[in-house]
Amino acid sequence: METRKQPTNSAKKPVQYKTEPIKAGILNDFQEPYITMPRYNDAISLLDTSKKGLEAKSALDFLALSGFTQDEFQETFKTTVKTIQNHVNRQLKLDASLSEKLLKAFALFDSGIEVFGSAQAFQQWLHTPAYGLGNRLPFDLMDTITGIQLIDEELTRIQYGDLA
Questions:
Q1: Three-state SS string across 110-137, please?
Q2: Helix, strand or coil for residue 55?
C-alpha cells in the first residue's frame, strides 16, 4: 500500500509592527492584510511618530496597499525599493521626512478608499486628470506633502459633492 505525502502550506503569514499600536484589516481589492496607523490624522501624533521614524517595513506595506508599481513608488517617495528592503533587513527606521510622507499617504489612501469605495477605483482616479486640481493627474502631485494635501482636499470636495 502506497502512502501519499500531503502538501504543506509554506506561505508565510504577514508580520505586524512590533513597536507601534496597530489595527489590521483586509483590503478587499487585494485580499491582503494591511496595517492602518490610527494616529495619523492628529497633527501632534503624526509629528511625534514621524520624528521617531517608522519601521522600514511600513514602506513595503504601503507599496502593497497602494498597488503602485516599484517605479511609481520610487517616483513618489524618492527612494528605491531596494533601499527600503535593505533598511528592513538591517532593522533600520525611516527618516522623519519619509515617515511623514508615508503617514500622509496612508491617510490619503484611507480617504480615497472611503470616497471611491475600493482601492482599485481610487487608483484609477489617481491616474485621471482632476478638474479641481487644474486637470492634473493626482498621482503626479503625490511626491510632495503639499500635493498630498491638495489631493486630500479634492477628495473632501468630491465626498461632499462640491465638483464646481
A1: HHHHHHHCCHHHHHHHHCCCEHHHCCEC
A2: strand
Distance from C-alpha of 58 to C-alpha of 68, rounded to nearest angstrom: 14
What residue spans of the chain are helical by DSSP H? 43-52, 57-66, 70-77, 81-89, 96-116, 119-126, 138-141, 145-159
Q: What is residue 4's predicted lDDT score, i.e. its pLDDT?
A: 53
For 55, phi and psi rounded to 5 degrees?
-60, 140
Question: In the prediction, which pLDDT does 1 show?
Answer: 52
Rounded CA separation 10/157 (Å): 46
Report d(CA 12, CA 23) in Å as an integer. Answer: 19
pLDDT at 154: 97
Q: Which residues of the chain have pLDDT under 50?
A: 9-35
Determine the angle formed by the axes of helices 70-77 and 57-66, rounding to 10 degrees.
120
Over its C-alpha atoms, the chain yields an Rg (Å, rounded) of 18
* Residue 32, all three cell numbers: 491582503
Phi/psi for 24 (5° steps) reads -90, 150
Return d(Cα 93, Cα 87) in angstroms, integer.
Answer: 7
pLDDT of residue 17: 39
User: Residue ranges of the domains in the chain?
Assistant: 23-159
